[in-house]
Amino acid sequence: MLSRETLEEYRRMTPGQRLALAFRLTDEATPYLFAGTPEQIKRRFELLRRQNDQRNQRILEGIARTMRNHEERD
């Protein structure tokens, strides 16, 4: 969990600053994605794919729900 101070600092950032921070953190973390045995790396990327697929599915369900609600009002 992030501290209130950290959250407030993020809120004060411009979108460009937040994007630059995201790029920096991604660059720093990327080497660790490839650390370990080939099997560990394979499992790590399978987990990332599974999490991304679940996230995308929830987004699509939310969009579909929003569209249904919008159509019901028309």
List its traits.
single chain; 74 residues; mainly alpha; 3 helices; flat
Structure in words:
- The chain has helices at 4-12, 15-33, 38-73.
- The termini are far apart.
- The protein is built from 3 helices and no strands.
- The radius of gyration is 18 Å and the shape is flat.
- Helix content is 86%, strand content 0%.
- The chain has 2 domains: 1-32; 34-74.
- It has 74 residues and is an all-alpha fold.
Helix fraction bin: over 70%
Unreliable spans? none
Q: Determine the oligomeric state from the structure.
A: single chain
General shape: flat
Structural domain count:
2
* End-to-end Cα distance: 42 Å
Helix-strand makeup class: mainly alpha
- The helix count comes to 3
Proportion of residues in extended strands: under 5%
Order of H and E elements: HHH
Biggest sheet layout: none
Number of strands: 0
Q: Rg from C-alpha positions? A: 18 Å
What integer is the average pLDDT?
95
Question: Nutshell version of this structure?
Answer:
The chain is an all-alpha fold. The protein contains three helices and no strands.
